[in-house]
């Protein structure tokens, strides 16, 4: 009977509940596993007692990235952690988008502003987005237009004061009409996909809580979307074996899909939307626990 930990976080203000967690724990138990959902920063958890620890809804990690990656290193030494600690460390810093771009993967153009760097916010009539390189659930992310430069600069200053590097991207207008498409992969193969509406509404303060997946619906990805997602996965340094992955795509100015984010740490699988995928996820976790 394999012991499997589906790693989560403590409930609290600004932390969403994970609707997939009880569904997956129950399905694993029905399949004969000893499954539980321990909290990643609980000092009383013996991670070495598990055959497999799977990072799931550790959605408070982004404000404690150094602590979280240290936990991943320690957990990975105590048991089999998926995805691996090295992948977690690389993917918790969204400067990975620059590495994907250098590898030829089409991504949303991104500029990074570390503490002490010139601000250099965009000029002109185009909307843009400011967010931290360590973030989840659109925390500290905001959409700005002409005339909002002072507010955007104040956001960057706040992030710098808290030790974060800011990232600045053009707002991709197609999100308002086409939404974002999220392609979920399991053991390197497409599992299912979903589409969600625009998360960032004009005028919403950067420190307001956002709805992470508005208007979520099932989606059948195009061949072009699958191809770009697979290119992004192939560009992960070291080509590690990934138990799971989610690639979030938007439509670029040329009408082709581009990568918004590559989620390898704690992506929502949207299993409540795709219940038919649960047996495949359970089978993959059981295989990983027995390797």
Description of the molecule:
This protein has 291 residues and is α+β, with helices and mostly antiparallel strands. Helix content is 28%, strand content 22%. The protein contains 8 helices and 13 strands. A 5-stranded antiparallel beta sheet has the order 11-10-9-12-13. The protein has a 4-stranded parallel beta sheet with strand order 2-1-3-4. Helix 1 (20-30) crosses helix 8 (278-290) and helix 2 packs antiparallel against helix 3 (85-91).
Task: Name the descriptors.
22% strand, alpha+beta, globular, 291 residues, four-stranded parallel beta sheet
Record the SSE blueprint.
Blueprint: E1 3-8, H1 20-30, E2 34-36, E3 52-57, H2 65-78, E4 81-82, H3 85-91, H4 96-102, E5 111-113, E6 128-132, E7 142-144, H5 149-161, E8 166-170, H6 175-178, E9 180-186, E10 189-196, E11 217-218, H7 223-234, E12 244-251, E13 257-263, H8 278-290
Parallel strand pairs: 1-2, 1-3, 3-4
Antiparallel strand pairs: 5-8, 6-7, 6-8, 9-10, 9-12, 10-11, 12-13
